[in-house]
Predict the structure.
Amino acid sequence: MKNYLIIFTVALLTTSQISAQPLTGYWEGKICITKTDSLTVGLQIDYQGDTLYAELDSPDQYFTGQPVSGLMFADSTLSFRVPEFGLTYSGSLSTDGQRFTGTCTQYGRKFACTLARGAERKQFLRPQTPIPPYPYRTEEISFRDRNGKYSLINGTLTLPDSTPKGLIIFISGSGWQDRDESLYAHKPFAVIADTLTKAGFATFRYDDFPTAIFRKSTTYDFADGVRLILDSLLQRSDLQYLKVGLLGHSEGSLVASMVAADDHRVDFTIHLDGVAQPIDEILLYQSEAIARASGKLTEKEIANSTAINKRIYDVIKKSKSKEECVEKIGKLWDELAAKLTDEEKVKYNLTPQNKLITLQTFGSPWYYELFRIDPKKYLKKIKTPVLAISGQKDLQVDANATEKIMDKYLTSNTLYFFYKMPDLNHLLQPCTTGSPDEYGQIETTIAPEALESIVHIAELFATYGHPVLKVVK
């Protein structure tokens, strides 16, 4: 689960009488979050044909070229928005054309932000990211919703030159994700799709629902989106008779389980750092593990933070509606914060700013419903082969807990492999501590041993179907 401040990309429309040419190039500045904390952002503007194209980077977070929308340049003012992150920007171009001075707004908070020329755009080495031309075919595909009203699924189908060994559909983790599951300048799904297609599989990876729809959607809707993909792709003559697998990362593995539990078209599932515990247990583990790895809190402070989070999660689980949830969390938040100093509020994330962001998150259909889903309900219904790979240093999902639950609930007629890989984190990168702070610092997108296991077991599943139980640790 992510809470990044900024990241974006857009088609830039110019409506000003000022020449567009001076706008091209790289602009960089800092968003002043507090008096002592800031975040570097950069804007790259170039032409694509006759249209200006811009990408906004967050180099401190190892993000480059992320989508924005609604970007305009009129009357010497540049503006854009990022609906996925509740963010907008507006800045005026100086008379010498060397800087935009303006304000960035996110979830009601305003931050000063000046973008100026002169800095060099940051580049992050990601040697595993596939670069065209590819030794296989790719197709860009769109599917409309079940009522045919709008484009719901937009993705990339990869096809080997020979008859595919199988078809694998990718499902991303929590929060809005693009088809490559891009984060920290890594593109994990692009790397896995490239590896599988070179090994002879067809793959389909897709962007999450359009933002306006995504905000109203729940995990159940994401599962129905996968079923829609199956409905659509399996109408193709070149895909109809293939073994079909679902590959899910993090929350995406829960979606894969939900579909595989009752859809006979799914022949196997691959769970990467998958979800097997209820979400409140995952979040409590996550906050403790990350805090301990950071070294910023004492054991007593970690215990206090855990107790606070548990009280909040209990309210969410017991609330009978989103509205009741938001109201009760707001009251509990004020009650807890009233007992703390300003320094303690920052330490335990109980500031007024955090309250605003948290209430918006807790009031979303997705988050509220996620607290009512028990993954074990679906795991015990899966009758088809399963591969689960977890990083032993995953600080976001407890690999040991996942292993115990999967061992218990996966049924006896399933070919089941659980690989708990040492020194890998939640992204299956080789790491030192497993902390999310390391994700962007690591050049490797996915450890080669994890990729090899995915290919090897996928080939086994596609070839042998549904043999008897065989657990390999």
About this structure: Confidence is low (pLDDT under 50) at residues 1-21, 466-473.
